[in-house]
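Would you mind giving me a polypeptide sequence along with per-residue structure tokens?
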Amino acid sequence: MGHRRGISRALEKRGIPFYIWSNKKVVNKTKAIKVILAEFPKSKKELYEHFPKNESITHIIAGSEEAVLSASLVRTWLKARRNPHSVIIKCTDKLKMKEYLRPFGIPMTEFVAGAVVAAPEEVIAQLGTPLILKPRQSSGGRGIERITDQEGLKNKINRDILFEKAIVGREGSVESFVSDGKIEFTNITEYRKLGHCNLVPSHYSPEVQNHILDLNQKVLTALNIQWGMTHLEFYITPEKILFGEIALRPPGGYIMEALQLAYGANFWELFTEIELGLSHQWNGKLKNFCASMVFHPASGEVTSILGSDKIKKRSSVEVFKLKIKAGDIIDPRKGVGQDVGYALIKASSPEELIKEIEWVENQLHFKIKSI
């Protein structure tokens, strides 16, 4: 549920029959029994409007953030392998997540639920300014607003949001494979430029990495996650490392592809094996320092794209793909999941990787006309 091409390929490679349920058009060729194109079901009735009642299903894999909650419900309805639904809720509802984890001593920024405040001055009295408004259920930065004054909160207080004290610091994530309640693999990703460039693995000092991994372990232990792939986001501030949020699903931003390039293992296959409870063996070793670069210039009409030919020929550039051409229209970016292309860069050292990233940044130029 929530199409990801890497999952489909992993299932096809093992000869496992499967359906795809997607809320967006599936453009990649697939050997799925059927592609169901519909909104994800919120009830049994909605499930069986699109899905055969007599089909025997053993596993449901959530590939996208939008599918996580529905996938958990479908697992229950079809009596498939599952984590407790209460865990899934804690990994999708930012307010319930933070309220649950705070008593475990997990360091995080101060927050206030939109349901418990009645006026803008109450929010500011508790958090000050600037502050961050977040939908309780969203991903990829969708719906997030930075509020700098009382006027900015006007007509925005409701039970579906929470407010957080603004954080000054660097952001990153930890990707973990969990099997039988134990962490089998972790990687720390550094967000060099939020929404545009991820470093895999991070370039942090060993001391900082140890603090991040300790935070990750405490969160996973508190949530008692038994299996799956987790994506925990954190902030490095001058005072301490803070928990941001956690998702029980693969990351976006082409991090999975960068992991494969960095460690020499197919992470979509590993993820699928863990989801299906199949035997698997982790043999990956760090081979390259990598980056995923995500492209999304300003919105408007593309008049020209410069530098792509040179980039394709660069030995450090493993993958370079653009989804647009001159004459196309780029819509405003509402979340980091939107992009017009990406690149995967590799190097033998962190220093060399930064040089290669900067080279690509200097070569690639989009000329955009406002419309």
About this structure: The mean pLDDT is 94. Residues 206-223 form the longest helix (18 residues). DSSP finds eleven helices and 17 strands in the chain. The radius of gyration is 21 Å.
